[in-house]
């Protein structure tokens, strides 16, 4: 057997590419941009600097609820009774849903009050309804943060206000945003709703608009959450989808609301304009065929166990290539799901990435007579 390398026409791969902040000037203390499908970081600026996430904390509050909904341990029509503790925040001048003590509010309305109206009162009502107290709910938040890889985050409450130890980074907020979009597509739709009307007790219905400024621009934005604290200034986790491509950006320390909107849009537009995302392989779907020796079939179909996408600078496509490497022909028998080769990705002559290839089927050996004939042919003619 010998090592065989098959160069594929399907080119267009990317390296582990992080573009430096010199390529674009984003006026925020800290920012990050990611392609959703490939997972590649396209831009970062001091992305591990500690920040006060403010209302971006509410992303995790909704994740806890979405997780319970997905498991069937909670339902959207279930109602929670509003405590005085939750009501106080609606009277304290913070962003609110304007709920009243004793109101019985559905989980769905509380989620809309959190996501669209950014209601701090709704956060407490949901947290208490799920866990009994906000402190117990924060434990769930931190457990989930650790589970999904938010290594530099601590949540002390469900809303992100009045909490000097409620800390994160834009990288961790990105991880959290990515996780929500990927795992709860049926509930993520709430983040693109532009307004929510709450038929409040003791007053006329109140309609509030979504605070995400990018939703009101015709750019394909569909979430995710704003934040503001006087000592952190303005922040935004945002997502934009064009055709099948999605980018997620997180920035904090924008000086004004206008800067938050303009700089976030600038970063997302830059990512769309300067990069392409290419689909290379679908999880568990046919990728290619490799040669087999002494098998009842002379080819084995192979696949990858993951979706493979790569994001590349548009002007550098010609330098990127993909090849299949394996020791072949592969000697039978071959078992289904056995690793039989690798996809190798290179930029110029440098190896950038490698993925295992798995056999899609069992390939049995030829019978003894056929193997003898094949061996004679090999001795006479080689493997041509």
Overall average pLDDT: 90
Question: In CATH, what is the class of the largest domain?
Answer: Alpha Beta
Level-2 CATH architecture of the largest domain: 3-Layer(aba) Sandwich
Count of separate structural domains: 2
DSSP summary, beta strand count: 18
**Rg calculated over all Cα atoms:** 26 Å
Would you list the SSEs in sequence order as H and E? Answer: EEEHEHEHHHHHEEEEEHEEEEEEEEH
Helix content: 25-40%
Describe, in plain words, how this protein is organized in 3D.
- The protein is an alpha+beta fold and 384 residues long.
- It folds into 2 domains: 2-14 and 286-381, Peptidoglycan synthesis regulatory factor (PBP3), Domain 2; 51-240, DD-peptidase/beta-lactamase superfamily (Beta-lactamase, 3-Layer(aba) Sandwich).
- Helix content is 28%, strand content 30%.
- The chain has 9 helices and 18 strands.
- The strands form 5 sheets. A 7-stranded mixed sheet has the order 1-15-17-18-13-12-16, with no helix packed on it. A 5-stranded antiparallel sheet has the order 3-2-10-9-8, with helices on both faces. A two-stranded antiparallel ribbon has the order 4-5.
- Strand 9 (233-242) and strand 10 form a beta hairpin.
- Helix 4 crosses helix 5.
- The longest helix is centred in the last third of the chain and has 18 residues, at 257-274.
- The two termini are 13 Å apart.
- 43% of the residues are buried.
- Mean pLDDT is 90; it is low at 9-22.
């Amino acid at each position: 057997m010998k090592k065989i390398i098959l160069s594929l026409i399907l080119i267009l791969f990317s390296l582990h590419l992080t573009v430096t902040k010199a390529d674009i000037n984003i006026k925020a203390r800290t920012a990050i941009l990611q392609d959703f499908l490939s997972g590649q970081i396209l831009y970062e600026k001091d992305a591990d600097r500690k920040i006060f996430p403010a209302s971006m904390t509410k992303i995790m509050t909704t994740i806890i609820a979405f997780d319970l909904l997905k498991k069937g341990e909670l339902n959207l029509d279930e109602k929670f009774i509003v405590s005085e503790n939750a009501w106080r925040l609606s009277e304290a001048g913070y962003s609110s849903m304007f709920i009243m003590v004793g109101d019985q509010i559905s989980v769905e309305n509380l989620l809309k009050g959190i996501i669209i109206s950014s209601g701090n009162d709704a956060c407490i009502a949901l947290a208490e309804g799920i866990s009994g107290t906000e402190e117990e709910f924060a434990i769930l938040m931190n457990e989930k943060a650790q589970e999904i890889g938010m290594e530099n985050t601590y949540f002390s409450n469900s809303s992100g206000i009045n909490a000097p130890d409620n800390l994160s980074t834009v990288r961790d907020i990105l991880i959290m945003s990515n996780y929500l979009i990927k795992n709860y597509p049926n509930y993520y739709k709430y983040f693109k709703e532009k307004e929510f009307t709450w038929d409040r007790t003791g007053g006329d219905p109140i309609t509030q608009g979504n605070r995400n400024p990018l939703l009101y621009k015709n750019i394909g934005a569909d979430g995710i959450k704003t934040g503001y604290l006087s000592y952190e200034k303005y922040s935004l986790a945002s997502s934009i989808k064009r055709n099948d491509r999605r980018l997620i950006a997180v920035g904090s320390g924008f000086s004004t609301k206008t800067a938050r909107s303009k700089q976030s849009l600038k970063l997302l537009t830059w990512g769309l304009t300067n990069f392409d995302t290419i689909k290379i392989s679908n999880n568990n779907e046919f990728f290619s065929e490799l040669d087999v020796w002494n098998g009842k079939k002379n080819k084995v179909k192979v696949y990858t166990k993951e979706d493979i996408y790569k994001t590349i600078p548009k002007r550098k496509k010609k330098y990127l290539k993909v090849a299949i490497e394996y020791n072949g022909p592969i000697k039978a028998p071959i078992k289904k799901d056995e690793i039989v080769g690798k996809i190798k990705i290179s930029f110029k002559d440098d190896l950038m990435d490698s993925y295992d290839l798995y056999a899609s089927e069992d390939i049995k050996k030829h019978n003894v007579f056929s193997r003898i004939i094949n061996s004679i042919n090999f001795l006479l003619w080689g493997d041509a």
